[in-house]
Design a protein that fits this description.
Number of domains: 3
CATH class of the largest domain: Alpha Beta
Strand content: 5-15%
Number of helices: 17
Strand order of the largest sheet: 7-6-5-8-9-10
Shape: elongated
Helix content: 40-55%
Distance between the termini: 37 Å
Low-confidence stretches: none
Radius of gyration: 30 Å
CATH topology of the largest domain: Beta Polymerase, domain 2
Largest sheet: 6 strands, parallel
CATH superfamily of the largest domain: Glutamyl-tRNA reductase, N-terminal domain
Length: 414
C-alpha cells in the first residue's frame, strides 16, 4: 500500500481551474466513500480556496487517482493533468508538514490552513476513510505545525488576506471611515475580514448570510446590521465595499445585479473582494466601470510583501520539518517491516517447537538428558542458520559481498 498526495494549488493552477475542483462540504463524505471504494484503503481530502489535495494510502497507482479526480469534477484528464502534482511517500509527508505549518500558503505563515487540515482529518475519520497511516500523518503534521509556530517567527509578520483587502480598499477610498461595508458569509475568513475593517471605523457595517442566526451573531460583535441574502438585490446599492466568502457552488452576485446597483448609486465606485472558491461574484462584474473586483489570486502580490523579512524564520522551519520527515519515514519503514518480522518470528517458533518435540520424545525413551539438551541446541542452531548459510553459499560474487555485509550487521559479527 503506497502513500502519496495528489492535487493542485495556487502555485500550479489559476483560480478558474481551482474553483472547478472544489469538494463541497455537502458532498465530501460521498467523495471520500467513492475514493475508498474505487481506489484507496485510506483517503482524506483537503479542499480550500487555494488548494485541493487528495491524501491516499492506496494499492492503485497515482495515475488512477489523477483520472478519478478529473472525472469526478468533469474534467478531461489530460487537461487537468497539466495542473496536477503527485507526491509519493517522503515527498507527500514533507508536503503535508509544510502545508500545515503555513509554508506552502499564499500568505506565508497564515494559521487558517491548520484548522482546514484538522477539519479534513475529522471529515475523513467521520467517513471511515482515515486509517492508521493517514491518522498518523495528520497528527504528526499538526504537531510539526505547532513546533514551527512556537519556535520560529514564521507567522509573526504574516499579512493576511483580510489585511490585504483593507490595504486595497484604502487605495480606492480616501478614508474608510466614510464607507459602508457589507460582508456576505459568516465563516472564519469573513470574521477575520470584519475584524480588520471594523478597526478602521467604517460608517456602517452589515452581514448577510444564509443562516440568519450566524449573521446576527457576527453583526452584533461589530455593532453592525444582519440582513437576509434574499434582500441583497434591493440593498446592495447601499454599500461601498463588499467582501464575500461563502461555500455556495453558484455565484451570489451576478453582473446584472451589480450593474443595477451601480445605476442606483449613480456610478459611485464599488470595491468588491471575492475570497470564495468557487467564486461568489461573477467575474464579468469586474468588467463594469466603477467596479474594483479582486479575487484571492489578485491579492497574491500584497500578501507576499513581507516574505523577505521572514526568510531566516522559514529556513529554521524547514530544518524542523526535515527532522520530523526523517522520523516519520523511519516509523513508516518500521510499520512496513512488521509482516516480515512476524513471519521471521513464526519461522523461529516453528523450529523451536519441532526441536522441543523431538527432545521430549527422546527424554520419554529414557535417553541421557545431557545428550538430549546437546542435540536440542545443535538442531535449533542448524535450523536457524540453514537459510542464511545456504543463501551465502549460492550467491554470485556481487550478491555475496552484499549478503556478507548484511549478515555481519544482522548477527553483529565483527
Amino acid at each position: 500500500m503506497a502513500l502519496f498526495a495528489l492535487g493542485l494549488n495556487h502555485h500550479t493552477a489559476p483560480l478558474a481551474v481551482r474553483e472547478r475542483v472544489v469538494f463541497h462540504v455537502e458532498r465530501l463524505r460521498e467523495a471520500l466513500s467513492a475514493l475508498r471504494s474505487d481506489l484507496a484503503a485510506e483517503a482524506a481530502i483537503l479542499s480550500t480556496c487555494n488548494r485541493t489535495e487528495l491524501y491516499l494510502a492506496a494499492g492503485q497507482p497515482p495515475a488512477a487517482a489523477a483520472e478519478w479526480f478529473a472525472r469526478y469534477h468533469q474534467f478531461d484528464p489530460a487537461e487537468l493533468g497539466r495542473y496536477l502534482y503527485t507526491l509519493p511517500r517522503e515527498q507527500a509527508v514533507r508536503h503535508a508538514f509544510r502545508v500545515a505549518s503555513g509554508l506552502d500558503s499564499m500568505v506565508l505563515g497564515e494559521p487558517q490552513i491548520l484548522g482546514q487540515m484538522k477539519e479534513a482529518a475529522r471529515a475523513a475519520e467521520s467517513a471511515g476513510t482515515l486509517g492508521l497511516l493517514l491518522h498518523k500523518l495528520f497528527q504528526r503534521s499538526f504537531a510539526v505545525a505547532k513546533e514551527v509556530r512556537s519556535t520560529t517567527s514564521v507567522g509573526t509578520a504574516s499579512v493576511s488576506m483580510a489585511a490585504a483587502a483593507v490595504k486595497l480598499a484604502a487605495r480606492i477610498f480616501p478614508s474608510l471611515k466614510d464607507q459602508k461595508v457589507l460582508f456576505i458569509g459568516a465563516g472564519e475568513m469573513i470574521e477575520l475580514c470584519a475584524t480588520h475593517f471594523a478597526a478602521q471605523g467604517p460608517a456602517r457595517l452589515a452581514v448577510a448570510n444564509r443562516t440568519a442566526e450566524r449573521a446576527e451573531r457576527l453583526a452584533h460583535r461589530f455593532n453592525g446590521e444582519a440582513i437576509e441574502l434574499k434582500v441583497l438585490p434591493e440593498r446592495l446599492q447601499e454599500y461601498d465595499i463588499v467582501v464575500s466568502c461563502t461555500a455556495s457552488s453558484l455565484p451570489i452576485l451576478g453582473k446584472g445585479l451589480v450593474e443595477r446597483a451601480l445605476r442606483a448609486r449613480r456610478r459611485r465606485p464599488m470595491f468588491m473582494v471575492d475570497l470564495a472558491v468557487p467564486r461568489d461574484i461573477e467575474p464579468e462584474a469586474g468588467e463594469l466601470d466603477d467596479v474594483f473586483l479582486y479575487t484571492v489570486d489578485d491579492l497574491a502580490q500584497i500578501v507576499s510583501e513581507n516574505r523577505d523579512s521572514r526568510r531566516s524564520a522559514v529556513e529554521q522551519a524547514e530544518v524542523i520539518i526535515e527532522t520530523q520527515v526523517g522520523q516519520f519515514m523511519r516509523w513508516m519503514q518500521a510499520r512496513e517491516n512488521v509482516p516480515l518480522i512476524r513471519a521471521l518470528r513464526d519461522q523461529g517458533e516453528l523450529a523451536r517447537r519441532q526441536e522441543l518435540e523431538r527432545a521430549l520424545r527422546c527424554l520419554q525413551r529414557g535417553d541421557d538428558p545431557a545428550a538430549v539438551l546437546e542435540a536440542l541446541s545443535q538442531g535449533l542452531t542448524a535450523k536457524l542458520l540453514h537459510a542464511p548459510t545456504q543463501a551465502l553459499n549460492e550467491a554470485t560474487a556481487d550478491e555475496s559481498r552484499v549478503l556478507s555485509e548484511t549478515l555481519s550487521r544482522l548477527f553483529r559479527i565483527k
